[in-house]
Write a structure and sequence with these properties.
homodimer; about 325 residues; 13 helices; six-stranded parallel β-sheet; elongated; 15 strands; NAD(P)-bd_dom_sf (chains A, B); Rossmann fold; Quinone Oxidoreductase, Chain A, domain 1
């Protein structure tokens, strides 16, 4: 077993002479249902060279996109054999002799996708990693690069929001939805969350309101609600949709003139239906957001780090809590 | 009968002493089907005062929006009694004593909507009118402020097009569609037009190709066409939709990554159906365009005149032909 306490006292040259690491990974060599194609495989890892960093994975989440990638239903196609997973928080074990920014014992998260994080250990490149404070919880750090950053970018990139403005979203208790509520609260923006009705609806509403939701309504309640007509809240100029179908249509119906509905998921597997009137006469725009594309297009941009560092507050405790069950 | 030859020799003061004009207008005092609510009404017009201009209407078209306004199905609600019509070309008969930019005999078009152009004569304000060359055909001038300007703005305002780029549109033989083909040819842009199949399809294709269409395909033909896959034409980055339903979905399917589908009409009365995949993974945006809003928001903008003056070439013959039957 690898222990940080021991490893942090030896340097890279000592490491390579003294021991090696066997990684246990969830690998697949063809597309299919994860339970059928994933296999637990052991690989002896090479020592980290040059700009490489050997890490031990401390926690790695399962995102829907990870499942879809394995199924072959995602636009990103891995080279086989592939290791599942795109996110994690890891501990640096040792580094190649050209690595300057990392040292053993630090916590890091991946900045690139497709690194295969469902493994016990991995060798990554220095520029694929970002240091995070060890004060940030493992759950928060391990889930920081996909869902909170999706929420962050969707709130920043489509409409210029001011304090007092309103954002509306369906799937409000998704990992992205929870981050939206928290960021809105931090920035003084009203957030209205739409959720499906369920037996424990009161507890769910309370949980989301504790995170920062201004209002939480079921799909049925939003249809008859007068929170916007009454002037209680400003009509939303920005809406997020991860459901599709009637839910997306209903959410778009509440948008103010010139508003934007951003789709980042389609849980109902139904398309977004857009009446001609709102498009033309209310100038409602229907857009999409894909974190993977944004990250590729902005790989070296300083903006790329502000969300992760800002949200997690590398100087202290997490600002945005990890997803609640 | 009012004759320009005679009237242009008398000044405004003489006019007001010598004669008055009775305008015959198509008026309505309630919403309904045009044939039921429109009445031919005679009104004695006041002499033009101050910044007013008395005009004789030479030609005025019927646009679908004019019908919808009378039916009460349009977001613009007139004050009753109202005169139908929003476009025309007119001749200046005489002007108020503060008018500086107009004189009798000139041809003018309205810059404002809702002026009620289905009349023989009218008194408008100086700032509601724009002079057009008398070399421009009456059909071209009378139809210049709605459809060609819609085409012009949709080509300018959503995607930065370069020569060699491709635009795709359904309803390709609409008045807007015809203007799109002509402007694309003038600017070196490929335009692909989709039309419904019909008995005289060969003649329609020829007519649209004469106007400037690069390719004209029926709804069935576009489904199996390989003009984009084969590389014959670059994939479109901009699409126009005035039909909705399956036609809009089909058009959006051919858009390149980051492309925009602009809806300006909904002839099928079916909504635009937007699959989640293209929104998220291809970054296809679904927008709308409404000329009335654009004109209001840009009433005094120099841009407002460039399309009318540029398209019609006030110095000579019309660059964009009026709608073909």
């Amino acid at each position: 077993m690898l222990r940080r306490g021991f490893l942090s006292r030896i340097n890279a040259a000592q490491w390579s002479r003294q021991m090696s690491v066997v990684a246990k990974s969830l690998k697949y060599t063809q597309h299919g249902e994860p339970q059928e194609v994933l296999q637990l495989v052991e690989d002896k890892l090479p020592d980290p060279k040059d700009n490489q960093v050997l890490v031990k994975i401390l926690a790695a989440p399962i995102n829907p996109a990870d499942i879809n990638t394995i199924q072959g239903k995602y636009p990103v196609k891995p080279k086989f054999p592939a290791v599942g997973g795109n996110e994690c928080v890891a501990e640096v074990i040792c580094v190649g002799d050209k690595v300057k920014g990392f040292e053993a014992g630090q916590h890091v998260i991946p900045l690139a996708s497709g690194l295969g994080t469902w493994t016990t250990h991995a060798v990554y490149k220095e520029d694929q990693l970002l240091i995070v404070s060890k004060k940030v919880g493992l759950a928060e750090a391990a889930t920081s690069t996909v869902n909170p950053t999706t929420a962050y970018r969707m709130l920043k990139d489509f409409v210029q929001l001011c304090p007092g403005d309103t954002v509306i979203q369906n799937g409000a208790n998704s990992a992205v939805g929870q981050a939206v509520h928290q960021l809105c609260r931090a920035w003084g923006i009203n957030s209205v969350g739409i959720v499906r009705d369920r037996p424990e609806i009161a507890e769910l509403k309370q949980m989301l309101q504790c995170l920062g939701a201004t209002e939480v309504l079921t799909e049925a309640e939003i249809r008859t609600s007068d929170i916007f007509k009454s002037g209680k809240l400003k009509k939303p100029r920005l809406a997020f949709n991860c459901v599709g179908g009637k839910s997306a249509t209903e959410v778009s119906r509440h948008l103010d003139n010139g508003g934007v509905l951003v789709t980042y998921g389609g849980m109902s597997r139904e398309p977004v239906t857009v009446a001609t009137g709102p498009l033309i006469f209310k100038d409602i725009a229907f857009r999409g957001f894909w974190m993977t594309r944004w990250s590729k297009e902005n790989y070296s941009s300083p903006e790329r780090f502000e969300n992760v560092q800002g949200d997690l507050r590398a100087d202290g405790a997490g600002k945005v809590r990890g997803p609640q069950p």
